[in-house]
Structures are given as structure tokens and as C-alpha cells.
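Dear support,

I submitted the protein below through the web form. The confirmation email said the job was done, but the results page showed an empty box. After a refresh the structure appeared. I'm attaching both so you can tell me whether what I see now is the final result or a partial one.
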Amino acid sequence: MAQNSQLVLASASPRRRELLESAGFRILVQPQGIDETVLSNEKPVAYARRVALEKAQACSSESKQVVLAADTVVAFEETILGKPEDDEHAFRILSTLSGQIHYVHTAVVVLGTETLVDVVTTRVQFRELSDADIQRYINTGDGRDKAGSYGIQSKGGWLVDKVTGCYTNVVGLPLPRTIELLDQCGVRHD
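What the results page shows now:
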């Protein structure tokens, strides 16, 4: 029988926490400080899967509860676009994405009685952006802590023309698939 138990989230992402809490999960946040350096020739999906699994495994050694970890990667032409180092870097990233299609891959790992791993991919089409559009968005500060230099769920939503696939994946956690994985481990939500 499913248990309405507390779920350990191996992530400091406020967006992941908010999405899970909005779905009725009780969360205990335990972010893990693992090395997230991209390995030589590592593709975006492989990177997201490896990092999410390492986060979950680091956390599971400390917890006897079900652990959820995720890693979201924004990729353009197989290049991982991480969080911007500064506003100039953000400008370059957003200029690259302007008028283009990119992909958001989120690896989700659930460690309970078994290890469940899946990757959800969403296709995102950006609007054509002028330099002034990009600078106006950067000036809001909204994308400074976000992969790909934008937040679709906040002030960066107007940068996006079309989303094909799971919207919450672009926010940072593919909630429908995550709930399916948690259900498989017997974690119930309200």
C-alpha cells in the first residue's frame, strides 16, 4: 500500500520544491554538493542522467526515505548551456537561442526499494530577439541562476514562442513523469 511519507529532495532548486509541494508531496530538502563538471565528450542527456544519479546516491547514503534527484540541462546543438557566469555570458547564450530551437533534458532519479531513472526531453522554440530585447531581459536579473539564462515560469516566458512536450520540464522537473516514478516506489501525494 502506498505511503504518504516524506520525500527527500536531493536538490536546492526552489522550482523543484514548489512543483512537488503544489502536487501535494511533503518534502525534506537535502541538496548534495557533487562535482557537476561536464566530462570530455559527454552528451547532454548522458550528463543529466549521471549528475542526477550521483545526487541521489550521495543523498541516499544519508537517508532511509525515498530520495528524488533531478538534473536539468538546456542544450543547443548538443552543447550544454549552463547557468550564465555573468551578464555578458547570458547575452551570448540568449543571442544563440534567439529564433532557434533548443532542448531541455531533465533526468529524474527515484531511489527507494529500487532505482528508477528516466530522462524527459522538451523542445523549445525561442522568438526572434533583438539585442534590446535580450538586454531588457538580462536587466531583470531573472535568468542569472537558471540554465540557458532564462526562466520560462517567470519573466522569461515572453522569450519563448512554442513549447513541444512537458512545460514543467522546462521549469526544472517533469512533474507528470516524476509522479509516475514516485507512484512506482509507493510514494503517495495528496
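Response: this is the final, complete result; the empty box was a page-load delay. Residues 7-184 form a domain with the Maf protein fold (CATH 3.90.950.10).
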